[in-house]
Specification:
potassium channel, alpha/beta, six-stranded parallel sheet, Alpha-Beta Plaits, 3 domains, Helix Hairpins, Rossmann fold, three-stranded antiparallel sheet
Length: 343
């Protein structure tokens, strides 16, 4: 009995992979041993394996039972050592899940997926943006890069990477090269606009530099606090800017002059309205803007722009350029139908 306890102590201390290999070898060897000890009861090693597993897992169906003394002695050995061994294995598996969860919460695991969205710097705005993305795209995965000690928010589609986004190792861990877009935010209640935009510029420069080094294209969207800093960001090849302070001021001004306009804009931006702004590929049957406008209207969508050009209504008779990028307002269900018809 003391010998068995000594073996269990050794099993607890050895490495997981070694333990799993030893366990597999032990169970397979036991299948052949019990077959060799009692060939009449266990006619082949598979039946022996069945007996071994039902014994060590305490299932004990009783359909195969050793009859000889030596067989029963080996059965007792299996009962004591085998059950203890598989208990240690299960404990190691549970421990591994705990370690994995801890490493994931602390942002120390690599993200190997593709087509995800990377958010740099956690804030209330970042959280709201994440919720909007997850609502708009039902299959979206979010990877957050921040220097926090652990993930700030628990969600099955949120993955946390701890570190600084100017570090190429951190960018590798977040797999930014495989991301749909990288969104860079500033901290909440930032007072020093120069410092905040400077930090964002340093971050996006590191990301774009990393992309250029790898000869890949990364779509970057940056929150900027002051419009006068935009020229600095253009040199960093930023794809889109969101100007926090000016956006609020513009919205307030429009609401003052055209009362109620802010509610319309906020409803359009919110997923709760049931409609949203979507990017739509050009259909081969569309020759003029009027073709696209009428076809989309019949299908329940409103064509609002070709990229940044909102003057489509004034030039419906003009031909659609090859590099046109249409933006429409419609529901998610309508968008699915439109994409099916354009494929």
């Amino acid at each position: 009995m003391l010998f068995i306890f000594d073996l269990i102590k050794i099993a607890v201390k050895i490495r997981k992979l070694t333990l799993f290999l030893v366990t597999i070898v032990f169970f397979i060897a036991s299948s052949f041993i019990i077959h060799w000890l009692e060939p009449a009861i266990f006619p082949n090693p598979f039946i022996g394996f069945w007996y071994v597993m039902t014994t060590v897992t305490t299932t004990g169906y009783g359909d195969f039972v050793p009859e000889t003394t030596i067989g029963k002695v080996y059965g007792l050995f299996l009962y004591f050592f085998g059950i203890a061994l598989i208990g240690v294995v299960i404990g190691k598996i549970v421990e591994s899940f705990g370690i994995y969860r801890k490493l994931k919460e602390e942002g120390k695991l690599n993200y190997n997926g593709h087509g995800h969205y990377v958010i740099v710097k956690w804030s209330n705005k970042a959280k709201h943006t994440m919720n909007e993305i997850l609502e708009i795209d039902e299959k979206a995965k979010i990877v957050l890069i921040d220097s926090l000690s652990q993930t700030p928010f628990e969600h099955e589609r949120l993955y946390f990477i701890q570190g600084n986004a100017t570090d190429t190792e951190v960018l590798d861990k977040a797999n930014v090269l495989g991301a749909k877009a990288v969104l860079i935010f500033t901290q909440d209640n930032e007072v020093n606009h120069v410092s905040a935009d400077g930090t964002s510029l340093l971050t996006v420069s590191a990301i774009e530099g990393y992309a250029a080094e790898k000869k890949k294209d990364i779509y970057t969207i940056v929150e900027i606090l002051k419009e006068k800093h935009i020229p600095n960001f253009k040199h960093a090849n930023v794809d889109e800017f969101v100007i926090a302070d000016e956006a609020l001021s513009d919205l307030m001004a429009k609401s003052a002059v055209n009362k109620g306009s802010s509610r319309i804009i906020m409803n359009l931006l919110s997923r709760k309205s049931g409609v949203d702004i979507w990017k739509l590929p050009r259909h081969s049957s569309w020759t003029t803007y009027n073709d696209a406008f009428d076809d989309l209207k019949r299908k329940g969508a409103i064509l609002i722009s070709d990229r940044n050009d909102f003057t489509i209504v004034s030039k419906l008779s003009k031909s659609i350029p090859e590099d046109a990028e249409f933006f429409v307002i419609c529901s998610k269900d309508t968008l699915k139908k439109l994409k099916q018809s354009t494929n």
